[in-house]
Design goal:
It is globular, with a radius of gyration of 23 Å. 44% of the residues are buried. It has three domains: 135 residues, 3-Layer(bba) Sandwich (FAD/NAD(P)-binding domain); 121 residues, FAD/NAD(P)-binding domain (3-Layer(bba) Sandwich); 115 residues, Enolase-like, domain 1, CATH 3.30.390. It has 429 residues and is an alpha/beta fold.
């Protein structure tokens, strides 16, 4: 069996490696127009100087040592009837084909957006250009108030004067509920990151030597400008090949297969759906891409596996705060006509007998049947394990009463007082 994968990002790589793990004799070829394998989540840390840019690149050997053929060329055409793909002057036959073409940055229609000091951040080459330009830039403007912008703004503020511009009323508006958004806004402003909220950028003036972002009838200095205004799925090749696409990408079934037999789509280029509402949603997270890749690989190898939907768990560190979420926000639940119960807790991260203990705030969203729909956390300590636990609880449709029976550990330096646990305490209220 010959499997061709278009795209050398996390989805394509995971799909290829999983196929080789399940069926080592399978002939797997990855076509990637990317010049290298980059750990994209680490790029903000490289841009800010927290880590070296070179460390964000992984060797091609991670594929080639598994006998996966890596061809760094762009696929230009697909013949779905003859099962052939073309790159420049060569063509390759396939038995199974996987689209893992990812997404591209969305560039809004703003006057001056094509200036030499305006950048998008999607891959290694983008990060390299931004890092070089920032060496001679004092003022940085970030357009967009999502997670990438907030993380990058926090990191860059140690060496630069940063302003974030967001057209919506809050930072992180689409992924968190207002109370957590507002806490993060206070943290940003406390650390001297300026915020322009509910602000539509009208134009960009200048080219970096002396440039400004104009909004709300005022001009704000920005030597370097980074667009963090979202992504759009790369679906042109799929559309040209007769593959059906929706609002958020290539349409697939529960086996990650498209409308054309033996052709699959995974990762940012694929339209997914919510595990809870069953409605189409964008993917956009690396963990979602990895899950979809494994499911496609299993089905390609004859192991029937269904994809049951996304919960989009995510975590971030912003200055000394960790935030995380999974499932539906309160606002999303209400928009989907779901009656909700909101339960909260606020505890210490260690016993209050210890030095330097912080706080952890928990918000749980339940439906009218007491099933967990969503969770959000903010803390001075790592909350990744809590997000994973909440994700599992949502997936298994665990109810509030069951969560109150959770057995949990206690230790003066590692947990809240033994009478309390962030999830249990919220559920008991």
């Amino acid at each position: 069996m010959k499997v061709c994968i278009i795209g050398c990002g996390p989805a394509g790589i995971e799909c290829a490696m999983t196929i080789k793990k399940l069926k080592p004799k399978t002939d797997v070829i990855i076509f990637g127009k990317e010049k290298n394998i980059a750990v994209k989540c680490s790029l903000p840390y490289a841009i800010s100087g927290e880590t070296k840019l070179e460390k964000c690149v992984k060797p091609d050997e991670m594929l080639t040592k598994r006998k996966i053929n890596l061809i760094r060329e762009e696929v230009t055409e697909i013949d779905t009837k003859l099962k052939k793909i073309r790159i420049k002057k060569n063509e390759y036959k396939y038995d199974k084909l996987v689209f893992a073409t990812g997404a591209k940055p969305f560039v809004p229609s703003i006057k001056g957006v094509d200036s030499k000091n305006v950048f998008t951040l999607r891959d290694y080459s983008d990060a390299k250009k931004i890092a070089k330009f920032l060496k001679n830039a004092k003022y940085v403007g970030l357009i967009g108030g999502g997670l990438i912008s907030v993380e990058l703004g926090a990191l860059l503020s140690k060496k630069h004067k940063v302003t974030i511009f967001e057209i919506l009323p809050n930072l992180l508006y689409s992924t968190y509920d207002r109370e957590i958004c507002e806490e993060i806004e206070k943290v940003m402003e406390k650390n001297k990151v300026k915020l322009e909220l509910g602000a539509k950028v009208e134009s960009i003036i200048g080219d970096g030597n002396l440039s400004y972002i104009k909004c709300k009838n005022k001009k704000i200095r920005a030597d370097a400008i980074i667009l963090a205004t979202g992504i759009r799925p790369e679906v042109e090749l799929a559309k040209n090949s007769g593959i059906k696409c929706g609002k958020f990408g290539i349409i697939t079934d529960k086996k990650m297969q498209t409308n054309i037999k033996d052709i699959y789509a995974i990762g940012d280029c694929a339209q997914s759906f919510s595990l809870i509402t069953k409605k189409p949603v964008p993917s956009g997270l690396v963990i979602s891409a990895v899950r979809e890749a494994k499911i496609a690989a299993k089905n390609i190898c004859g192991i029937e596996t269904n994809f049951e939907g996304l919960l989009n768990p995510s975590a971030a560190k912003i200055f000394n705060y960790c935030i995380g979420r999974v499932g539906l926000t309160e606002r999303e639940a209400i928009e989907n006509n779901i009656k909700v119960k909101i339960l909260k807790s606020e505890l210490t991260t260690k016993y209050d007998t210890q030095k330097k203990f912080g706080k952890i705030k928990t918000k749980l969203i339940f439906d009218s049947k007491d099933r967990l729909l969503g969770a959000q956390f903010i803390s001075s300590e790592n909350i990744a394990d809590l997000i994973s636990f909440a994700s599992f609880a949502i997936y298994k449709k665990i109810k509030r009463e069951e969560l109150t029976n959770l057995s949990y550990p206690a230790h003066p330096e590692l947990t809240s007082l033994p009478f309390f646990n962030p999830v249990v305490s919220a559920c008991e209220k």
